[in-house]
Write a structure and sequence with these properties.
This protein has 456 residues and is α/β, with parallel strands linked by helices. It has helices at residues 29-39, 80-90, 111-120, 166-176, 187-194, 215-227, 231-234, 254-265, 285-299, 322-350, 370-389, 408-414, 425-436, and strands at residues 2-6, 23-24, 27-28, 46-50, 70-75, 98-103, 126-132, 139-140, 146-148, 156-165, 200-204, 245-249, 269-273, 304-307, 353-357, 396-402, 444-447. The chain has a seven-stranded mixed β-sheet, with helices on both faces. The chain has a six-stranded parallel β-sheet with strand order 13-12-14-15-16-17, with helices on both faces. Catalyzes the formation of 4-diphosphocytidyl-2-C-methyl-D-erythritol from CTP and 2-C-methyl-D-erythritol 4-phosphate (MEP). Its EC number is 2.7.7.60.
Protein backbone atom coordinates (compact mmCIF):
# COMPACT_ATOMS: atom_id res chain seq x y z
CA UNK A 1 0.00 0.00 0.00
CA UNK A 2 1.31 3.43 -0.94
CA UNK A 3 -0.01 6.73 0.37
CA UNK A 4 0.91 9.78 -1.70
CA UNK A 5 0.77 12.87 0.49
CA UNK A 6 -0.35 15.80 -1.65
CA UNK A 7 -1.69 18.18 0.96
CA UNK A 8 0.68 21.11 0.31
CA UNK A 9 -0.60 24.48 -0.85
CA UNK A 10 2.61 25.63 -2.53
CA UNK A 11 3.22 28.92 -0.73
CA UNK A 12 7.00 28.79 -1.08
CA UNK A 13 7.04 27.74 -4.72
CA UNK A 14 5.13 30.92 -5.46
CA UNK A 15 3.16 29.93 -8.55
CA UNK A 16 -0.32 30.45 -7.15
CA UNK A 17 -1.35 26.77 -7.28
CA UNK A 18 -0.62 23.76 -5.08
CA UNK A 19 2.91 22.66 -5.90
CA UNK A 20 1.83 19.09 -6.63
CA UNK A 21 -0.28 20.42 -9.52
CA UNK A 22 2.54 22.36 -11.18
CA UNK A 23 3.14 20.93 -14.64
CA UNK A 24 6.60 19.77 -15.64
CA UNK A 25 7.28 17.83 -18.84
CA UNK A 26 3.61 18.08 -19.75
CA UNK A 27 2.17 16.54 -16.57
CA UNK A 28 1.38 17.62 -13.03
CA UNK A 29 4.13 16.66 -10.59
CA UNK A 30 1.72 14.36 -8.74
CA UNK A 31 1.07 12.49 -12.00
CA UNK A 32 4.78 11.78 -12.44
CA UNK A 33 4.94 10.48 -8.87
CA UNK A 34 1.81 8.41 -9.40
CA UNK A 35 3.29 6.84 -12.55
CA UNK A 36 6.33 5.59 -10.63
CA UNK A 37 4.19 4.17 -7.84
CA UNK A 38 1.73 2.54 -10.22
CA UNK A 39 4.57 0.86 -12.14
CA UNK A 40 6.14 -0.61 -9.01
CA UNK A 41 5.88 -4.36 -8.57
CA UNK A 42 5.86 -4.05 -4.76
CA UNK A 43 2.87 -1.72 -4.54
CA UNK A 44 -0.64 -3.16 -4.81
CA UNK A 45 -2.80 -0.15 -4.01
CA UNK A 46 -2.39 3.64 -3.97
CA UNK A 47 -4.25 6.33 -2.02
CA UNK A 48 -3.72 10.04 -2.58
CA UNK A 49 -4.28 12.42 0.32
CA UNK A 50 -4.96 15.75 -1.40
CA UNK A 51 -5.30 19.35 -0.27
CA UNK A 52 -9.04 19.52 0.42
CA UNK A 53 -9.37 22.84 -1.38
CA UNK A 54 -8.06 21.42 -4.64
CA UNK A 55 -9.15 17.78 -4.45
CA UNK A 56 -11.55 18.23 -7.38
CA UNK A 57 -8.54 18.86 -9.65
CA UNK A 58 -7.43 15.26 -9.19
CA UNK A 59 -10.73 13.41 -9.44
CA UNK A 60 -10.13 12.62 -13.11
CA UNK A 61 -7.07 10.55 -12.17
CA UNK A 62 -9.16 8.02 -10.28
CA UNK A 63 -10.76 6.76 -13.50
CA UNK A 64 -7.61 7.17 -15.57
CA UNK A 65 -6.60 3.89 -17.20
CA UNK A 66 -2.95 4.83 -16.62
CA UNK A 67 -3.37 4.33 -12.87
CA UNK A 68 -5.29 1.12 -12.13
CA UNK A 69 -3.77 0.87 -8.64
CA UNK A 70 -5.19 4.24 -7.56
CA UNK A 71 -8.29 3.40 -5.52
CA UNK A 72 -9.05 6.52 -3.49
CA UNK A 73 -8.38 10.25 -3.30
CA UNK A 74 -9.23 11.61 0.13
CA UNK A 75 -9.00 15.11 1.66
CA UNK A 76 -5.99 15.88 3.81
CA UNK A 77 -5.70 17.88 7.00
CA UNK A 78 -4.12 21.19 7.93
CA UNK A 79 -0.70 19.65 8.63
CA UNK A 80 1.30 16.77 7.24
CA UNK A 81 0.60 14.77 10.40
CA UNK A 82 -3.14 15.41 9.99
CA UNK A 83 -2.94 14.13 6.41
CA UNK A 84 -1.11 11.00 7.53
CA UNK A 85 -3.77 10.33 10.12
CA UNK A 86 -6.50 10.82 7.53
CA UNK A 87 -4.85 8.09 5.48
CA UNK A 88 -4.47 5.81 8.52
CA UNK A 89 -8.18 6.14 9.21
CA UNK A 90 -8.95 5.06 5.65
CA UNK A 91 -6.79 1.91 5.69
CA UNK A 92 -7.77 -1.62 6.72
CA UNK A 93 -7.39 -3.07 10.20
CA UNK A 94 -4.56 -5.53 9.52
CA UNK A 95 -1.63 -4.36 11.70
CA UNK A 96 0.82 -6.21 9.47
CA UNK A 97 -0.09 -4.28 6.32
CA UNK A 98 2.99 -2.65 4.79
CA UNK A 99 2.34 1.01 4.05
CA UNK A 100 4.60 3.57 2.36
CA UNK A 101 4.11 7.31 2.79
CA UNK A 102 5.61 9.40 -0.01
CA UNK A 103 5.61 13.10 -0.84
CA UNK A 104 3.67 13.85 -4.01
CA UNK A 105 6.33 16.42 -4.90
CA UNK A 106 9.17 13.88 -5.00
CA UNK A 107 8.59 12.58 -8.55
CA UNK A 108 12.07 11.09 -8.98
CA UNK A 109 11.78 8.25 -6.49
CA UNK A 110 12.99 5.10 -8.21
CA UNK A 111 12.13 1.42 -8.23
CA UNK A 112 15.21 0.45 -6.21
CA UNK A 113 14.21 2.71 -3.31
CA UNK A 114 10.64 1.39 -3.29
CA UNK A 115 11.84 -2.23 -3.40
CA UNK A 116 14.31 -1.76 -0.55
CA UNK A 117 11.78 0.04 1.66
CA UNK A 118 9.22 -2.75 1.28
CA UNK A 119 11.85 -5.48 1.72
CA UNK A 120 13.17 -3.83 4.89
CA UNK A 121 9.70 -4.13 6.44
CA UNK A 122 10.28 -7.89 6.56
CA UNK A 123 12.80 -7.19 9.34
CA UNK A 124 11.84 -3.78 10.78
CA UNK A 125 8.66 -2.02 11.85
CA UNK A 126 9.73 1.38 10.51
CA UNK A 127 11.91 2.45 7.57
CA UNK A 128 13.19 5.85 6.47
CA UNK A 129 14.92 7.03 3.28
CA UNK A 130 17.88 9.39 3.52
CA UNK A 131 21.09 10.56 1.85
CA UNK A 132 24.41 11.80 3.30
CA UNK A 133 24.77 15.52 3.78
CA UNK A 134 27.28 17.16 1.47
CA UNK A 135 27.20 20.31 3.60
CA UNK A 136 28.41 20.91 7.12
CA UNK A 137 25.40 21.18 9.43
CA UNK A 138 25.48 23.78 12.18
CA UNK A 139 23.21 24.26 15.19
CA UNK A 140 22.32 27.83 16.21
CA UNK A 141 20.53 29.52 19.06
CA UNK A 142 17.88 32.26 19.00
CA UNK A 143 20.60 34.86 18.46
CA UNK A 144 21.92 33.02 15.38
CA UNK A 145 25.10 32.01 17.21
CA UNK A 146 26.58 28.59 16.46
CA UNK A 147 26.10 26.29 19.43
CA UNK A 148 27.20 23.01 17.87
CA UNK A 149 28.70 21.53 14.71
CA UNK A 150 27.68 17.86 14.54
CA UNK A 151 29.93 15.29 12.85
CA UNK A 152 28.79 15.33 9.23
CA UNK A 153 29.70 11.67 8.69
CA UNK A 154 26.80 10.51 10.89
CA UNK A 155 24.25 12.97 9.54
CA UNK A 156 21.69 12.22 6.85
CA UNK A 157 19.13 14.29 4.95
CA UNK A 158 15.70 12.73 5.25
CA UNK A 159 13.59 11.97 2.19
CA UNK A 160 10.56 9.83 1.48
CA UNK A 161 9.18 7.22 1.17
CA UNK A 162 8.88 6.31 4.82
CA UNK A 163 7.51 2.82 5.36
CA UNK A 164 5.84 1.15 8.32
CA UNK A 165 3.90 -1.80 9.53
CA UNK A 166 0.42 -0.33 9.85
CA UNK A 167 0.03 -1.31 13.51
CA UNK A 168 3.28 0.46 14.42
CA UNK A 169 2.53 3.82 12.84
CA UNK A 170 -1.00 3.77 14.23
CA UNK A 171 0.29 3.06 17.73
CA UNK A 172 2.83 5.90 17.46
CA UNK A 173 0.15 8.40 16.44
CA UNK A 174 -2.20 7.22 19.18
CA UNK A 175 0.47 8.09 21.76
CA UNK A 176 1.28 11.37 19.98
CA UNK A 177 -2.34 12.46 20.13
CA UNK A 178 -2.25 12.17 23.92
CA UNK A 179 0.64 14.65 24.03
CA UNK A 180 -0.55 18.29 23.92
CA UNK A 181 2.95 19.42 22.89
CA UNK A 182 3.07 17.01 19.95
CA UNK A 183 4.85 18.28 16.87
CA UNK A 184 6.70 16.35 14.18
CA UNK A 185 7.72 17.16 10.61
CA UNK A 186 7.54 13.59 9.35
CA UNK A 187 6.17 10.19 10.27
CA UNK A 188 9.46 8.59 11.29
CA UNK A 189 9.78 11.44 13.77
CA UNK A 190 6.53 10.32 15.40
CA UNK A 191 7.79 6.74 15.76
CA UNK A 192 11.20 7.94 16.99
CA UNK A 193 9.60 10.12 19.67
CA UNK A 194 6.75 7.95 20.90
CA UNK A 195 8.08 4.45 20.24
CA UNK A 196 11.75 4.97 21.19
CA UNK A 197 12.41 1.23 21.45
CA UNK A 198 11.41 0.68 17.81
CA UNK A 199 14.50 0.72 15.56
CA UNK A 200 14.10 2.69 12.34
CA UNK A 201 16.10 1.30 9.43
CA UNK A 202 17.43 3.73 6.82
CA UNK A 203 17.39 2.98 3.09
CA UNK A 204 19.75 4.94 0.85
CA UNK A 205 17.94 7.57 -1.18
CA UNK A 206 19.32 9.47 -4.16
CA UNK A 207 20.15 13.13 -4.73
CA UNK A 208 17.63 13.09 -7.59
CA UNK A 209 14.83 12.17 -5.16
CA UNK A 210 14.41 15.87 -4.44
CA UNK A 211 11.39 17.65 -3.05
CA UNK A 212 9.95 20.40 -5.25
CA UNK A 213 9.43 23.17 -2.71
CA UNK A 214 11.18 26.36 -3.84
CA UNK A 215 10.87 28.16 -7.20
CA UNK A 216 14.34 27.00 -8.26
CA UNK A 217 13.30 23.39 -7.64
CA UNK A 218 10.83 23.61 -10.52
CA UNK A 219 13.64 24.47 -12.92
CA UNK A 220 15.88 21.72 -11.52
CA UNK A 221 13.08 19.18 -11.80
CA UNK A 222 12.47 20.17 -15.40
CA UNK A 223 16.13 19.51 -16.21
CA UNK A 224 16.07 16.18 -14.35
CA UNK A 225 13.18 15.00 -16.49
CA UNK A 226 15.28 15.83 -19.53
CA UNK A 227 18.20 13.87 -18.10
CA UNK A 228 15.95 10.86 -17.61
CA UNK A 229 15.80 10.46 -21.37
CA UNK A 230 19.51 9.51 -21.45
CA UNK A 231 18.67 5.87 -22.10
CA UNK A 232 16.95 6.66 -25.40
CA UNK A 233 20.19 6.46 -27.35
CA UNK A 234 22.09 3.59 -25.80
CA UNK A 235 19.67 1.41 -23.85
CA UNK A 236 16.58 1.41 -26.05
CA UNK A 237 16.36 -0.63 -29.24
CA UNK A 238 15.20 1.03 -32.42
CA UNK A 239 11.40 0.99 -32.44
CA UNK A 240 9.21 -1.01 -34.77
CA UNK A 241 7.02 1.56 -36.50
CA UNK A 242 5.15 -0.86 -38.72
CA UNK A 243 1.67 0.50 -39.34
CA UNK A 244 2.59 4.02 -38.21
CA UNK A 245 2.21 7.00 -40.52
CA UNK A 246 4.94 9.63 -40.21
CA UNK A 247 4.97 13.01 -41.93
CA UNK A 248 8.27 14.88 -42.25
CA UNK A 249 8.40 18.54 -43.21
CA UNK A 250 11.89 19.47 -44.39
CA UNK A 251 12.69 15.90 -45.35
CA UNK A 252 14.78 16.50 -48.45
CA UNK A 253 18.22 16.82 -46.84
CA UNK A 254 20.13 16.91 -43.56
CA UNK A 255 18.48 15.60 -40.42
CA UNK A 256 15.04 15.53 -42.05
CA UNK A 257 16.25 13.25 -44.82
CA UNK A 258 17.84 10.94 -42.25
CA UNK A 259 14.59 10.82 -40.28
CA UNK A 260 12.78 9.77 -43.45
CA UNK A 261 15.33 7.06 -44.14
CA UNK A 262 15.47 5.64 -40.62
CA UNK A 263 11.68 5.76 -40.17
CA UNK A 264 11.20 3.76 -43.37
CA UNK A 265 13.75 1.23 -42.19
CA UNK A 266 11.69 0.93 -38.98
CA UNK A 267 8.62 0.04 -41.04
CA UNK A 268 6.77 3.36 -41.01
CA UNK A 269 4.71 4.73 -43.88
CA UNK A 270 6.65 7.98 -44.37
CA UNK A 271 5.53 11.04 -46.30
CA UNK A 272 8.07 13.84 -46.74
CA UNK A 273 7.45 17.41 -47.86
CA UNK A 274 9.86 20.22 -48.66
CA UNK A 275 10.11 23.20 -50.93
CA UNK A 276 12.69 21.51 -53.19
CA UNK A 277 10.91 18.17 -53.66
CA UNK A 278 7.18 18.88 -53.34
CA UNK A 279 7.04 22.66 -53.55
CA UNK A 280 5.70 22.82 -49.98
CA UNK A 281 6.40 26.08 -48.17
CA UNK A 282 6.30 25.27 -44.45
CA UNK A 283 5.54 28.90 -43.69
CA UNK A 284 2.24 28.63 -45.56
CA UNK A 285 -0.75 27.51 -43.51
CA UNK A 286 -2.56 26.46 -46.66
CA UNK A 287 0.35 24.41 -47.98
CA UNK A 288 0.85 22.61 -44.68
CA UNK A 289 -2.85 21.88 -44.26
CA UNK A 290 -3.03 20.53 -47.82
CA UNK A 291 -0.03 18.26 -47.25
CA UNK A 292 -1.54 16.75 -44.10
CA UNK A 293 -4.92 16.41 -45.77
CA UNK A 294 -3.34 14.45 -48.63
CA UNK A 295 -1.54 12.10 -46.25
CA UNK A 296 -4.67 11.46 -44.22
CA UNK A 297 -6.68 10.79 -47.36
CA UNK A 298 -4.09 8.28 -48.56
CA UNK A 299 -3.30 6.56 -45.26
CA UNK A 300 -6.33 7.12 -43.04
CA UNK A 301 -4.25 8.24 -40.06
CA UNK A 302 -1.24 10.28 -38.97
CA UNK A 303 0.82 9.14 -35.98
CA UNK A 304 3.72 11.59 -36.00
CA UNK A 305 4.58 14.91 -37.59
CA UNK A 306 8.23 15.92 -37.74
CA UNK A 307 9.18 19.52 -38.50
CA UNK A 308 12.91 19.71 -39.31
CA UNK A 309 13.02 22.55 -41.84
CA UNK A 310 15.20 25.50 -40.91
CA UNK A 311 17.39 28.25 -42.29
CA UNK A 312 20.60 29.75 -40.87
CA UNK A 313 21.93 33.05 -42.19
CA UNK A 314 25.10 34.52 -40.72
CA UNK A 315 25.90 38.19 -40.30
CA UNK A 316 25.47 41.22 -38.02
CA UNK A 317 21.87 42.25 -37.45
CA UNK A 318 22.43 45.80 -38.67
CA UNK A 319 23.75 44.51 -41.98
CA UNK A 320 21.07 41.86 -42.53
CA UNK A 321 18.30 42.69 -44.95
CA UNK A 322 14.85 43.00 -43.42
CA UNK A 323 13.46 40.41 -45.83
CA UNK A 324 16.07 37.91 -44.61
CA UNK A 325 15.23 38.66 -40.98
CA UNK A 326 11.56 38.07 -41.68
CA UNK A 327 12.31 34.90 -43.63
CA UNK A 328 14.44 33.51 -40.82
CA UNK A 329 11.78 34.12 -38.18
CA UNK A 330 9.05 32.71 -40.40
CA UNK A 331 10.96 29.51 -41.23
CA UNK A 332 12.53 28.86 -37.84
CA UNK A 333 9.61 29.78 -35.59
CA UNK A 334 6.39 30.61 -37.42
CA UNK A 335 6.60 27.41 -39.49
CA UNK A 336 6.80 25.13 -36.39
CA UNK A 337 3.74 26.98 -35.06
CA UNK A 338 1.89 26.47 -38.34
CA UNK A 339 2.82 22.78 -38.58
CA UNK A 340 1.98 22.05 -34.92
CA UNK A 341 -1.38 23.77 -35.15
CA UNK A 342 -2.36 21.97 -38.34
CA UNK A 343 -1.19 18.57 -37.07
CA UNK A 344 -3.14 18.63 -33.81
CA UNK A 345 -6.49 17.39 -35.08
CA UNK A 346 -4.92 14.36 -36.76
CA UNK A 347 -2.71 13.46 -33.83
CA UNK A 348 -5.59 13.76 -31.38
CA UNK A 349 -7.19 10.77 -33.12
CA UNK A 350 -4.08 8.59 -32.77
CA UNK A 351 -2.51 9.88 -29.57
CA UNK A 352 0.40 10.94 -31.74
CA UNK A 353 3.29 13.34 -31.43
CA UNK A 354 4.79 16.45 -32.97
CA UNK A 355 8.59 16.51 -33.06
CA UNK A 356 10.30 19.86 -33.45
CA UNK A 357 13.99 20.80 -33.61
CA UNK A 358 15.91 23.47 -31.79
CA UNK A 359 19.64 24.28 -31.57
CA UNK A 360 22.23 24.44 -28.80
CA UNK A 361 22.25 28.19 -29.49
CA UNK A 362 18.80 28.45 -27.88
CA UNK A 363 20.36 28.72 -24.42
CA UNK A 364 22.32 31.87 -25.22
CA UNK A 365 22.10 34.28 -28.12
CA UNK A 366 25.05 33.97 -30.50
CA UNK A 367 26.69 36.91 -32.25
CA UNK A 368 26.01 37.06 -35.98
CA UNK A 369 23.04 34.70 -35.83
CA UNK A 370 20.90 36.18 -33.08
CA UNK A 371 17.64 35.88 -35.03
CA UNK A 372 18.26 32.16 -35.51
CA UNK A 373 19.12 31.49 -31.85
CA UNK A 374 16.18 33.63 -30.65
CA UNK A 375 13.80 31.70 -32.90
CA UNK A 376 15.16 28.40 -31.61
CA UNK A 377 14.62 29.57 -28.03
CA UNK A 378 11.01 30.33 -28.99
CA UNK A 379 10.61 26.78 -30.33
CA UNK A 380 11.66 25.42 -26.92
CA UNK A 381 9.05 27.55 -25.17
CA UNK A 382 6.46 26.52 -27.75
CA UNK A 383 7.18 22.85 -27.08
CA UNK A 384 6.77 23.18 -23.34
CA UNK A 385 3.64 25.28 -23.64
CA UNK A 386 1.89 22.97 -26.10
CA UNK A 387 2.76 19.92 -24.02
CA UNK A 388 0.59 21.40 -21.28
CA UNK A 389 -2.14 22.60 -23.62
CA UNK A 390 -2.45 19.25 -25.36
CA UNK A 391 -2.02 16.88 -22.42
CA UNK A 392 -5.78 16.34 -22.05
CA UNK A 393 -6.05 15.58 -25.76
CA UNK A 394 -3.37 12.89 -25.53
CA UNK A 395 -1.19 14.70 -28.08
CA UNK A 396 2.52 14.75 -27.22
CA UNK A 397 5.13 17.20 -28.42
CA UNK A 398 8.89 17.09 -27.95
CA UNK A 399 11.91 18.93 -29.27
CA UNK A 400 15.29 17.56 -30.35
CA UNK A 401 18.35 19.69 -29.62
CA UNK A 402 21.15 18.29 -31.81
CA UNK A 403 24.53 19.86 -31.18
CA UNK A 404 26.82 20.53 -34.14
CA UNK A 405 25.45 18.17 -36.79
CA UNK A 406 27.02 17.59 -40.20
CA UNK A 407 24.31 19.06 -42.41
CA UNK A 408 24.43 21.16 -45.59
CA UNK A 409 22.97 24.09 -43.65
CA UNK A 410 25.80 24.03 -41.11
CA UNK A 411 28.50 23.55 -43.73
CA UNK A 412 27.15 26.52 -45.70
CA UNK A 413 27.22 28.69 -42.57
CA UNK A 414 30.47 27.57 -40.92
CA UNK A 415 32.45 25.88 -43.65
CA UNK A 416 34.27 22.57 -43.31
CA UNK A 417 34.84 21.38 -39.72
CA UNK A 418 36.63 18.33 -38.24
CA UNK A 419 34.37 15.32 -38.72
CA UNK A 420 34.96 14.03 -35.18
CA UNK A 421 33.44 17.23 -33.74
CA UNK A 422 30.12 16.75 -35.52
CA UNK A 423 27.16 14.46 -35.11
CA UNK A 424 26.09 12.38 -38.08
CA UNK A 425 22.49 13.22 -39.09
CA UNK A 426 21.61 9.54 -38.81
CA UNK A 427 22.54 9.56 -35.12
CA UNK A 428 20.13 12.41 -34.54
CA UNK A 429 17.46 10.65 -36.59
CA UNK A 430 17.77 7.46 -34.55
CA UNK A 431 17.30 9.35 -31.28
CA UNK A 432 14.39 11.22 -32.85
CA UNK A 433 12.58 7.99 -33.64
CA UNK A 434 13.11 6.70 -30.12
CA UNK A 435 11.55 9.89 -28.80
CA UNK A 436 8.61 9.44 -31.18
CA UNK A 437 8.12 5.94 -29.81
CA UNK A 438 8.37 7.01 -26.17
CA UNK A 439 5.78 8.39 -23.79
CA UNK A 440 7.69 11.64 -23.38
CA UNK A 441 6.09 15.01 -23.83
CA UNK A 442 7.33 18.54 -23.27
CA UNK A 443 10.95 17.40 -23.37
CA UNK A 444 13.93 19.16 -24.93
CA UNK A 445 16.16 16.19 -25.73
CA UNK A 446 19.78 17.16 -26.35
CA UNK A 447 21.97 14.90 -28.48
CA UNK A 448 25.55 15.73 -27.59
CA UNK A 449 28.61 15.61 -29.79
CA UNK A 450 30.89 14.57 -26.93
CA UNK A 451 28.86 11.46 -26.17
CA UNK A 452 27.20 10.75 -29.48
CA UNK A 453 24.66 9.40 -29.70
CA UNK A 454 23.81 9.74 -26.01
CA UNK A 455 20.88 11.92 -24.97
CA UNK A 456 20.68 14.30 -22.06
Amino acid sequence: MAVILAGGIGVRVGLGIPKQLIKIAGKAIVEHTLEVMNASGVIDEIIIVMNAGAIDQLTSLQNDERFPKLTRIIPGGETRNDSTQAALAALDDDPNTKVLFHDAVRPFVNERILDECVEALDHYEAVDTAIPSADTIIQVDSASHITAIPNRSVLRRGQTPQAFRLGTIRRAYALANEDKTFHATDDCGVVFTYLPDTPIFVVDGTPENMKVTEPIDVHIADKLFQLQSASLASDVAMPDLTGKVVVVFGGSYGIGASVVEVAREAGADVHQFSRSTTGTDVRSRGAVKQALKEVFAASGRIDAVVMSAGVLRMGPLTKTKVKHIESSIETNFVAPVVVSRAAHKYLKETGGQVLLFTSSSHTRGRANYGIYSASKAAVVNLTQALAEEWAEDGVRINCINPQRTRTPMRTHAFGEEPVETLLDPRQVAEVSLKVLDSGLTGQIVAVRVEEAPKVQ
